[in-house]
Amino acid sequence: MTGLKGADALDFHKKLKERNAALRNAELNAAKELADKNGKEPFDLVKLERLCDTSQAGRLAEWNERQAMYEYMYYVEHKNVGTLQDFARVVTTLASWS
Questions:
Q1: Which H or E run contains 24?
Q2: Using the 8-state DSSP alphabet, how is residue 92 labeled?
Q3: Which of 15, 66, 73, 75 is the most interior residue, by most CB within 10 Å?
Q4: Is 56 helix (H, G, I), strand (E, B) or coil?
């Protein structure tokens, strides 16, 4: 297999990022639908940040980055967590490991 270079490499990288973003969005949307059917509390970053610290070592990422990261974690990675209160415990536990 030969390596891509220049514009071909950039084009391939762009397409790969777009494909991965589409897959991630589809996975998130499916998980949100299922969560709604199962009565899971809707995700709310403002409420989550009242319940726990979402900074990493005192550094706070941009709001849209935190929204995307924690929403994905809540719906996709922690499907069985039904409330933001319980998810705040997960976030706090994960933060204690780093």
A1: helix 6-37
A2: H
A3: 75
A4: strand
Q: How many CB atoms lie within 10 A of CB 78?
A: 16
Report domain extents, the chain: 6-96
Residue of 49, 48, 31 lying closest to 40 (CA atoms): 31
Residue at 2: amino acid letter: T
The two three-digit tokens of residue 95, written as one number? 């933060």
Q: What is the pTM of this model?
A: 0.86
From the CA atom positions of the chain, what is the Rg in Å? Answer: 17
DSSP 71-86: HHIIIIITTT--SHHH
- Only one residue has tokens 């970053």, namely 45
Averaged confidence pLDDT in the chain: 93
Q: pLDDT (tens digit, 9 = 90+) per residue, 62-93?
A: 999 999 999 999 999 999 999 999 999 999 99
Amino acid at 60: L
